[in-house]
Design brief:
This protein is about 80% helix and about 0% strand. With about 425 residues, it is an all-alpha fold. The protein has one domain: MFS general substrate transporter like domains (Growth Hormone, Chain: A), CATH 1.20.1250.20.
Length: about 425
Amino acid sequence: MGNTKTASKSQGKVPVIAKELLIPFILITFCFALWGFANDITNPLVKAFGTIFNQSAFISSFVQFAFYGGYCFMAIPAAIFIKKYSYKSGILLGLVLYAFGGMLFIPASLVGVFWPFCAAFFIMTCGLSFLETSANPYILSMGDESTATQRLNLAQSFNPMGSLIGIIVARDFILAKINKLGAEERASLPLEEFDSIKMADLAIVRGPYVAIGVIIAIMFLLIFIRKMPKAQDAAKTLDLSGTFKRLMANLRYREGVIAQAFYVGAQITVWTYTIHYGTEVLMGEGMLEGDAAAQAVSFNLYAMILFATSRFVCTYLLKYIQPGSLLMYLSIGAMLLLFPVVFAGGRIGLYALIGISGCMSLMFPTIYGIALKGVGEDAKLGAAGLVMAIAGGSLMPPLQGLVLDTYGVQLSYLMPIICFVVIAIFGYRTYKIHNA
C-alpha cells in the first residue's frame, strides 16, 4: 500500500483532463449518460412486458437477452470500423443506430407483439455497442496513461446520471401510467378487452423511446460539427491477426474480459429483478400487484442514487488505493450483502439489495481500465472484447428468470453471488500478480 500512495502523488502532477480537451471530453462523457438512460429505462420493462403480455419472467427476460445481445454481436464489427476510421466516426454511427432502434418502437407498438420490441432493442444496442467500443478507449486516450483509469471513472460517473433519469422515466411515464391490473387479473379478461388494454399500454411504452431519439439527433449534430482530437486515431492499418494474438497473450486482458462478463451479468440481474423483489415485498405488506410494481421501481431509483454517489467516492479513493485491491474489497462487500437478500427477505433483504449498488459502482470502468492498461493501439480491438463481455448481461437474466419462475425471487439471487466471487478473484490477482 505504501507504493500506492507514492504513485498517487506522482499522478497528482498530471492533469486528469487537459484544458484543450475539456469540450471533447464533455461531449463524449454525455454519451455515457445516453447509454445509461437506455440501460435503466429498459430494466423495469422486463416486469412491465411480463404484465402487459401476460408471460413468464423467463420469456420477459428476453428483453435483456436482445438488449445485451446487440452489444455482443456488434462489438467486433464496431472495433474494426473504429480502427479503420476513427473514434468520432464510431460514436456518430452508434448514435444513428441508437436513434433508429428507438424509432422502431412505433411499428412494434402498432403490431402489438412482444418479439418486435426485442428486435428494436437489439438494433438500439448495436448502436450502444458502437458508442461503448468508441467512447471508453477514447476517454482513456485523452491524456496521460497514468491518469487513464481515473479519467474513465470520472466519465463513467455520469453514466448513472443517465440511469437515474431512465429509472424516473420508467417509473413516472411508463409504469405509473400503464393499466394497474396484475397478470392474473388480465388473464381473466375477455380477449378483446385484454388486447385493448395491451395496445394502450404499449403506446405508453413507446413514448420515451421516441423522445430520446430526438435528443440523440441533437447530440449527433453537436459531435458532428465539433472538431475532435485525432492524434490517437492515427494508425489505420488493420492487423486483426496480430492484434488478437497480442491481446490473447496478455493474461491481464484475458482475465479482465472474463471478469467484465461476470460483472455485467451481476449488475443486470441485480437491477432487473429488483422490481420483482420489491413487488413481492410490498405485496406481502398488503399492496395490490399493479401498485406494488409501480412503487417497486422507486427502489431501483434509490439503488441508482447510491450507485452514482459511490462512483464519485470510489473515484476519489483510487488516489490512495490500488484499483485491484479496491475492486476485491467491494466484490466481497457485495457478496456479504447478498446473503440477507437470499436468506432473510422482506425489507431487510430489499435494503441490502439496494446497498449492493454502492459496491458495484466502481467495477465496470475499473475492470475496463485494468484490462486495457498498456495495450496501446490494440485498445481499439481490445475494447471490443470488453464490450462483447457485456454478453454476460444477455445470458444471466434468462438463467435467473428460470430460477425465479421455479424457486422464487429470493433464491434467484444466488446467481450474482457466483459473479462477485469471480470479480473478487480478478481483483486479488490484479493487486497481487498484475500489480495494478
